[in-house]
Amino acid sequence: MSSKGRRVGNLVSAQTGVAVTVSGDPIVLGVGNTELVRITGSGNIGIGTDNPTRALTVVGSGTSTSQLFVTGITTVAAGSTAAPSITPTGDTNTGIFFPSADTIAFAEGGAEALRIDSSGNLKLSTAATSILNSSGNKILNQTGSILQVVNATYSTIVSSSSSTYANTNLTASITPSSTSSKILVLVNHNGCGKDATNTQIGIKLFRGATEIALIENPAGYTASTATNYIGSISTCYLDSPSSTSSVTYKTQFASLNNAQTVYLQVNSTVSTITLMEIAA
After folding, report:
1. How many CA atoms lie within 13 A of 110 on its CB side?
2. Is the pLDDT of residue 128 over 80?
3. Mean pLDDT confidence for 130-135
4. Are 37 and 44 in contact (CB under 8 A)?
């Protein structure tokens, strides 16, 4: 411990050697000529170090007896993504911060990597982020896993007497989490049929304005003028949209003889379209 300065009154004990060094030097507390605490001229406090670089610097040997132990509540600033409130030495943009009430978030390199929200939900920073096991393999979005499901229905009767394909009004949109994802499209049109004419139903599947599948052609065909209500027309199609933007799928139908009438959703039967994002 420094021998400079002077010792102050009753802060000196002949048995323990407790002392305070003053008179122009940092304030130093020690026991038995061993320095324990130092307060620099700039107000920094060091425990286990004679060169504190922060308001409080604690240096230990790594054993449990030399670590900082706090009882009660310790309050820190909320911090931010760029400057978390709890960080390691030399990496001030990586650590823990608190973006809102009852929410804990983790930043890595100045970007949010993970958060636990006020409902206890664990949220990864981006859709492309994966949770890995100890071998580095994905465990939550392995190839073939269902990442999200979107469903829509339509039950209003529609009809057409034109061979030009028109919207059935059965449609659904999905936003893939990765460009490598597949979208499994399940379509079930109910209440399908033709009136007493020699025509048939054509139905196609579209992604946006692009036709991607011919679902049925010709449905309900009898080669006669007999009325024919066939019930349902269904398909299962695996698409590769290669997009992370919203993608819309829909169906269109037509009366293939371009004169007589075909119908979907007769008697308000419910048609469905289901979109499932599949990890690839």
Report:
1. 1
2. no
3. 72
4. no
CATH numbers and ranges of domains, the chain: 9-66 (no CATH), 75-125 (no CATH), 147-278 (2.60.120.1340)
> To which residue do tokens 């399940």 refer?
186
Burial profile 47-77: b = 16 or more Cβ within 10 angstroms, e = fewer: bbbeebeeeebeeeeeeeeeeeeeeeeeeee
Q: Which of 109, 106, 137 is nearest to 123 (CA)?
A: 106
pTM comes to: 0.56
The 8 Å CB, 24+ separation contacts for 221-229 are 222/198, 223/198, 224/198, 225/196, 225/197, 225/198, 226/196, 227/193, 227/194, 227/195, 227/196, 228/193, 228/194, 229/191, 229/192, 229/193, 229/194, 229/263, 229/266
C-alpha span between 278 and 44 (Å, rounded): 56
